[in-house]
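Let's do one together. I've listed all components of the complex below, 814 residues spread over two lines.
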Amino acid sequence: MMNPLFTELRPAILATLVLGGITCGAYPLLITQVANATFHDQAHGSLITGKDGQIIGSALLSQNFTAENYFHPRPSAAGSGHDAASSSGSNLGPTSQKLHDALKERIAAYRTLNGLTTDAAVPADAVTASGSGLDPHISVKNAELQAARVAKARNLSIEKVKELIIANTTKPDLGILGDAGVNVLELNLALDNVERVFQLVPSK
Amino acid sequence: MQASDWLQFALFLGLLTLITKPMGLYLMQVLDSNGRTWLDPVVRPVEKLTYKILGVDPQREQGWKQYTFSMLAFSLTGALFTYAILRLQHLLPWNPQDLPGLSHHLAFNTAVSFTTNTNWQSYGGEATLSYFSQVVGLTFHNFVSAAVGIGIAAALVRGISDRKTSFPTRSTVDRVFQPGETSSKTRSTVGNFWTDLVRVTYYLLLPVCVALAIFLVSQGMIQNFDAYTHAKTLEGAEQIITQGPMASQVAIKMLGTNGGGFVNANAAHPFENPTPLSNLIQMLSIFAIGSGLTYYLGRMVKNQGHGWAVWAAMMIMFVGGVLVCAHYEAAGNPIHQQLGITNVDRVFQPGHEDQTSSQTHPTGNMEGKEVRFGLFNSSLFATVTTAASCGAVNSMHDSFTPIGGLVPLFMMELGEVVIGGVGAGLYGMLVFVILAVFIAGLMVGRTPEYLGKKIQAKEVKLAMLTLLVLTLSILGFTAWASVSAWGVAGLNNAGPHGFSEMLYAYSSATANNGSAFAGLTANTPWYNTTLGIAMLIGRFLMIVPIMAIAGSLAAKQAVPAGPGTFPVNGATFTILLIGTVLLIGALNFLPALALGPIVEHFLMGQGQLF
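Okay, and this is what the predicted structure of the assembly comes out as:
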């Protein structure tokens, strides 16, 4: 009964080698070549480089911000937080005591930091961990609630900050796909650039 | 659900319906050894050369046993091939992060997982696997396990269809296994495994993947062999950014309903699913082949109404699942809402400052979900990926509300027949079709026949065997784990949710899905081994009886339909089929579901925490 299985091993091994060569050799190398030629930046992680040539991060990935003059991303369960080599969600379930306690703490901290009343509604995305731990976006509502704090810390008008929020909001694809979100890293970069302009003006 | 959600749902269903017929027609050509496609000028010479190297005659059809032996030999070889690569990872090239070889139990689990088209992952990709292991060890199976599944489905359809008139009978009957069969007018063969494997890979999977991978890169997916990038963040911290040949693997991971993520967070990761548009295309590619195979079925049996009836049964169950899941995820978690959470803004409104309006928003469950997808696309993806035996995730199912998480669990326990895995969905559904026809036959007191072929004790016994094996594996392993120290030690959540984590793991493994309530720490010798066995049971103890059914039906002479024949097209049949799937497929799991997500749902309503 086992004989037919053994006679089939020869084509099985040869098929593994031939199909392996094509699907694991030719195919990925072809894609790499074409991707590099046509969409070089995307193929290498949509990296953002600073003025000194140092890589700041990726436009697609969140990074940690704690200073008052920056917008803050969503909480992250990736590694010790925003670890772009160890993506992960919290995987805590709906009846988890641990998740409940974490949310309670984050909600209180968010209200204190942004000068909200103790019963103010807090956007869900501001206090829940994302699936990847690297969600680059926050909701528009979340950004608006942080705007006053950032404006004060930077001596900017709140109108200017809200203008930048709108400029850095990713709208739904094709107008209907997905939800709008504000890219935190790009928004914070835009804020830093505004500050440089303001500093240049008085020195003239 | 909001208006924009309905619009997106309609768009998804509309596009899926549009691609079903063209995909089915293309499958007709791909799964016919003499089929013609527009790729012939380029691919035909490579195809012929491949047969020459393999030493097989593509025109020589096999009986069901021969076909099964070829499939088993090929799967065994592939599993050993990947096991060796994973164990020897540290000695192989393309390993810029100097990652070590895998433990024997993790390598066993992973090799089985990818060979069986499950892609359960007990590890996090970016921290465990070198580029060589990803590209050579895993991408290989993403292609060929999909091709094998499609081949098995085609073999079963060939067995069902009455092929003696449409194909000239040549001396194609396998003499070793079917002695004395040469004079029969009915062909008792089911196709050639090697021809199916090669043709599906060359004509269907590779060309679509090339286009899909390039599109995904355009959306922001990475594709390189660089070492991980060291970035210095705006606040001066170091951030190490993962890199690698992702797009080439993700394209086939979706199209082949494999689902194994390149990185730990799978399609929730912004690199692995950069935009809502990439999300839509990924969901469509998960369903594309499975949906097209129902059209292929209709064509092959010369009863297109039957193909659409099967498709309709799948889609009705799918739409129901999406609506339930989306409803409960949007309704959210009352415990968290009491703490003061509102939903994220759904609509972009420049200058919108009315903060009180957020009080009236529905307060959905955003834990484990990404802002760019939002609540609806996360719920839709979760249902697609579990209906289709894909297992990729764009949100963390472990953090879903109890009923929101029950939907993916239920989809897997139906046996992955709602579209299902490529090929696996169709052959799984055809088992239910045979049972539905049998039940209908009992009700009217006639010998049941399916498309003119008599359904007898042998076919029904084999069909029931596949279902019982599935149930036994899921419930047996879950029960074992939940009373064992090694089982409970892996839990990330306590209370009924912890039980759900184990039930989800063995449902996912047995159904060859691969998604997880990912809090479960499964990278232990016990979990890796038992889940590996569950995956082997779910794949091969399904396929072998199904191939036996194919062989048995192939040898039967079809009789013309009479006035008492139960029609296998139209609404009555669709409803009967759904009823069969729900009663026979799902009823077994209700007690287990009651102990997990259902009891958790009521406890959540009372504010109970664990």
